[in-house]
Amino acid sequence: MNSAAAPLLFTPITLRGVTVRNRVVVSPMCQYVSVDGGPTDWQFVHFGRYAMGGAGIVFGEETAVEARGRKTYHCAGLWNDYQARAYRRITDFIKEMGAVPAIQLGHCGRNAGSHGAMEEWRALDERDARAGMPPWRGLAPSPLPARRGFPVPIEMDHDDIRHVLAAFRDAARRATDAGYDISEIHGAHGYLIHQFLSPVSNRRTDAYGGSRENRMRFALEVAETVRAAWPQDRPLFFRVSAVDGKGGLWGLDDTVALAHELRARDIDLVDCSSGGISGESDMALVPRVPGYQVPYASRVRRETGIMTMAVGLITEPAQAESVLQEGHADLVAMARELMIHADWPLRAAKELQAGHYDLMAPSIAHRLRRRDEQAVAHAPGSTVEIPISADRRETYRWQ
Hints:
Elements: E1 13-15, E2 18-20, E3 24-26, H1 41-52, E4 57-64, E5 76-77, H2 81-96, E6 100-106, H3 126-130, E7 139-140, E8 154-155, H4 158-177, E9 182-187, H5 192-197, H6 212-215, H7 217-229, E10 236-241, H8 252-264, E11 269-273, H9 294-304, E12 307-311, H10 317-325, E13 331-334, H11 336-340, H12 344-351, H13 362-375, E14 383-389, E15 392-397
Parallel strand pairs: 3-4, 3-13, 4-5, 4-6, 6-9, 7-8, 9-10, 10-11, 11-12, 12-13
Antiparallel strand pairs: 1-2, 14-15
Helix pairs in contact: 1-2, 4-7, 8-9
């Protein structure tokens, strides 16, 4: 590949002491197959195939910093040393394939005690308790249920806040031991940090509620805590919901203000998503159209100077390249499209003439290069003789 002519999508980028081979990021995707918070063979194969497929950064799934901070009994976690050791097998393989392993650390807050995505996160009930999965009450800034059917969460006092901050700190340290080179704080999608940010879910009257400055306090304390625990030579991202969602109150102006403060606390990149908290305002539902969250990443980047990552229905190589070329974001993240085509980066590199074989495992690339060399011996549409036996041949022609 001629690096001088390389598309931005396949131009390496250095983030602190970590150099990433391209700008394609596998966005965090919850799998709901963990056992006691630890990964299984599913995660090894599932995330390993994205590294083999040529992505630059491979995020695992949202990973709970404490057991009560997970949504389901099958969510990923990083609250003990056993889990950290179990992830090492996955991160070692991702690195072997040339990609950078990344982890998203989060706490679900009041969304605790539910089923997974295939049951639309239905709240656990007495039937589940009889099956060995009793519901539990989550933590929240205010005693407001996540939605109908969920219990009233525990309103966090200052001891609870200190405990959760310590859990983020300890999880960040374990993430280092687990072999991750990039960490991201999950402050979006209605999780605990987002619950503090939005006035829909935060009705506190102390230093953590009321004004925007106060509602940002917990998010910034988490950022400071994780940054202090995370190695200085490794980048730290922060995922935001740029807007709450239908009927919400936290908006893009608020996100820009938060991004300014995150940059001041040495956060390296803001990952711009949306949604997760609903209310009764006139805020509209974000339409799910191609690149629908790119404008959020663009404005945050333009007005704060912090690096951003764009995500949301980015599915075509030329589309991803234009996001970067037009200065909307520094990285492009994908989720469901990669579930369908784990080798999307290889296809994109081929389409953009960026040396797709360079992204493959050497043993695979060697065989494909040999195939290409052999294929040029006969032009398409030419006639050849196919041997059938020592003294017989048949004519064969292909288009």
